[in-house]
Amino acid sequence: MTRNYDQNNIFARILRGEIPNNTVLETNHSLAFHDINPAAPVHVLLIPKGAYVTCDDFATHASADELVDFNRAIARVVELMGLTAGYRALTNAGRDGLQEVPHYHLHILGGRALGPILTKAAPLS
Ligand code: AMP
Asked: Atom 13 (ligand 1): residue with closest C-alpha?
């Protein structure tokens, strides 16, 4: 997928301190904050601080330190948010994934039963 990074996307602006966020966790290479429009009682976004567009961009180009930091941060967010009954971690990428913000982010959702991951209303073509 393309990795043209838009330096003015909203998460880049959050990382530069131009826009406030409700921080859950900050580490050397990652930031987690509450989603502004939560889809569940717990809805945290975890982002790398580096300029990566999608999950595959991050997985391909991030350093080992960044990759470890991000994955450890997932576990810390789950613990901090008390998601003992389970959670869903998902990422949207590109046009078909309906990605709105072109800076890689992992949605971590929980706090209630979340239902099926995809609706089956639309037939596959
Ligand atoms: P996606 O469709 O996967 O790109 O998701 C983007 C997410 O970013 C949505 O769930 C938005 O509610 C969330 N979002 C957009 N702007 C902000 C913001 N300023 N602070 C926190 N979350 C935001």
From this structure: 35
